[in-house]
Design a protein that fits this description.
The chain is α/β, with parallel strands linked by helices and about 120 residues long. Helix content is about 40%, strand content about 15%. It contains five helices and four strands; from the N terminus they run ββαβαααβα. The chain has a four-stranded parallel β-sheet, covered by helices on one side. α3 packs across α5.
Length: about 120
């Protein structure tokens, strides 16, 4: 496992890029509506880190399903090689910003991914 020197944060893709975003990585499987590649300012689109399509569809961003979704997504992340890719990015960048399109800043896969990566990198 890589030694993550940088930190992770999450941000909606619809928010304007900022100088302190560092390495910007889209962590959604689907491209967000209405966002051009130029406006996104991405270094990487890491579709493979997103929840599997069946899990995403089952969750459907319903708060009452979030606890089950979190557990299942964390199980998927345990075996996902894209996790190492993000940890390697953090080792090379001061900050890695994980970008997502969901409306709810608390009940979404990027929040689960952020907490998972923070645990793995500590």
């Amino acid at each position: 496992m890589a030694n993550a020197g940088g930190s992770f944060q999450i941000k909606r893709i619809y928010d304007d890029p900022a100088d302190d975003d560092g390495c910007r990585v889209l962590v959604d499987r689907l491209w967000p509506r209405g966002v051009t590649k130029e406006r996104a300012g991405l270094e990487l689109w890491l579709k493979e880190i997103a929840p599997s399509p069946p899990l995403r569809q089952e969750f459907a961003h319903m708060q009452e399903r979030f606890a089950d979704f979190r557990a299942q997504y964390e199980d998927e992340l345990e075996d996902n090689p894209a996790v190492e890719q993000l940890l390697d990015l953090a080792a090379r960048h001061k900050r890695v910003t994980l970008l997502y399109a969901a409306k709810d800043p608390e009940v979404n896969h990027a929040r689960v991914l952020l907490e998972f990566l923070q645990q793995r990198s500590s």
